Amino acid sequence: MKIKVGVIFGGNSVEHEVSIITAVQAMSFMDTEKYDIIPIYITKDRQWYTGKMLLEMDVYKDFDSLKKYAKQVCLTNINGEFCLQNTKGLFRKTIEKIDIAFPIVHGKGVEDGSLEGYLESIGIPTVGPSILGAALGQDKIVMKQVLDSYKIANPEYTWFYDFEYLENKEEITKRIEKLKYPVIVKPARLGSSVGIKIAKDKQSLDIAIEEAIKYDSKILVEKVIEDLKEVNCAVLGNSEYQETSLIALMKTKNDFLTYEDKYLSGGKKKTGLKGLKSGNMSTSEFDIPAKIDKDLEEEIKDLAKKTFKALDLSGVARIDFLIDNKNKKVYVNEPNTIPGSLSFYLFKPAGKDYKTLLDEMITTAIKKYKEESKKVSSFESNILSTYNGSKGMKGKI
Predict the structure, then answer these.
(1) DSSP conformational letter for 341
(2) Would you say 177 and 193 are in contact if contact means Cβ atoms under 8 Å apart?
(3) What does pTM read for this prediction?
(4) Count of domains forming the chain
(5) Is the domain of 90 the same as that of 205?
(6) What is the dihedral of CA 257, 263, 268, 274, to 10 degrees?
(7) Are residues 143 and 174 in the same domain?
(8) Would you say residue 298 lies in a domain?
(9) Distance, CA of 105 to CA of 19 (rounded, Å)
């Protein structure tokens, strides 16, 4: 009997479209002899839909006109079975059942642990990071604080809330200028380089902060490493074991990899159906494997594993690194807990094709679920039986 995999994607996120591309691509590569693929699409207004039509990329070009052919659903646990039920009409009816959830989502509101929290609350086995791992990966500030505690090097930084900047702009600016220009300003909880700008002086700093505040209430400012190489290394596994991919050396004509570099232009590969089948939906240019010396390669792979484990990640995550060529130092830039294309293109040249990678991710999740199921999660005793109304029960306990 095939395992029913519910692939969940979309959501109310600025990376909504990127999630669709990643998910449709992944579903096209899954082993249909082992898995029955159930697409579950979350619209920007947070409505859930299912239907085989959602396997096709062209549907999303005008989904509002075509959604009447899909089924609007909710996911719930009914007597230990995970059911997609209709949300219209007087009575709920189970349309489909799934055995495991495979979230392929990007960005705030879905990838940040929000979706994982819901899935864990109903008890369904889930591919990918834990709630904590997802939250740490999304919040760049807390992530850096965790890395600091593990003594994992990351670029020098400061951070603040939007209201702090609005109330005391001068003090915040002085704190930032201690880093010395140029600095890079980022919304703390977004991805895909959305809302990011380089500031080379006070005037451009104001513009960069105003742009970042459009997207998030927490703002991160880092010292720019001017003479750098940016490299990526993916990790497959969980807290128990980690397997690294090859390393990619990224290329850009800009000061950093922009959204346009990643998805709209900047490279020879193109998105769309051809790009989906090629295995990499990004249009970024890169060299795989990166032409770096062996010692540096081993250092990056070791840091990738340490970061993956420190942040409680699982499934596949891509760790982005900055190499300071002048000072010969490697910094962790950020993790991508559910990366675009699931970083398949970093594993393929080493002999692991996309179908195998997806299979191993699902297998890892099932194994984790079985192990977690053995842990004690509740007690047989019922403390409510001693509850004595308004008199309270604290003394009895």
Answers:
(1) G
(2) no
(3) 0.87
(4) 3
(5) no
(6) 150
(7) no
(8) yes
(9) 5
Residue 121 within a domain:
yes
Q: Let me know whether 104 and 163 are in one domain.
A: no
Domain that holds residue 147: 137-152+227-366
Q: Between vectors from CA 250 to CA 315 and to CA 292, what angle results, nearest 5°? A: 95
Phi then psi for residue 47, to 5 deg, are -90, 140
Pair 95, 73: CB distance under 8 Å:
yes
Q: Locate the DSSP E strands across 135-241.
A: 157-161, 183-187, 197-199, 218-223, 228-237
The alpha carbon of residue 136 and the mean position of all alpha carbons in its chain are separated, in whole angstroms, by 10
Q: Are residues 120 and 166 in the same domain?
A: no
| 144/259 same-domain check | yes
Per-residue pLDDT of the chain (397 residues; tens, 9 = 90+): 899 999 999 999 988 999 999 999 999 999 999 999 999 999 999 999 999 999 999 999 999 999 999 999 999 999 999 999 999 877 889 999 999 999 999 988 999 999 999 999 999 999 999 999 999 999 999 999 999 999 999 999 999 999 999 999 999 999 999 999 999 999 998 765 778 999 999 999 999 999 999 999 999 999 999 889 999 999 999 999 999 999 999 986 655 555 454 444 444 344 344 444 445 545 457 899 999 999 999 999 999 999 999 999 999 999 999 999 998 899 999 999 999 999 999 999 999 999 999 999 999 999 999 998 888 877 777 777 777 765 555 555 5
Q: Which residues, 6 or more positions from 104, have their beta carbon under 8 angstroms from its beta carbon? A: 7, 8, 9, 19, 22, 23, 26, 338, 342
> By C-alpha distance, which of 111, 278, 94, 268 is closest to 194?
111
Comparing CA positions, the residue from 281, 262, 279, 286 lying closest to residue 270 is 281
Do residues 196 and 131 make contact, with C-beta atoms less than 8 angstroms apart?
no
User: In this structure, is residue 392 part of a structural domain?
Assistant: no
Q: How buried is residue 394: exposed, middle or buried, by Cβ count under 10 Å (0-12/13-18/19+)?
A: exposed
Q: How far apart are CA 317 and CA 343, in angstroms?
A: 8
CATH code at position 209:
3.30.1490.20
**In a shared domain, residues 142 and 117:** no
Q: At 24, list the tokens.
A: 């449709």
94 and 161 co-located in one domain? no
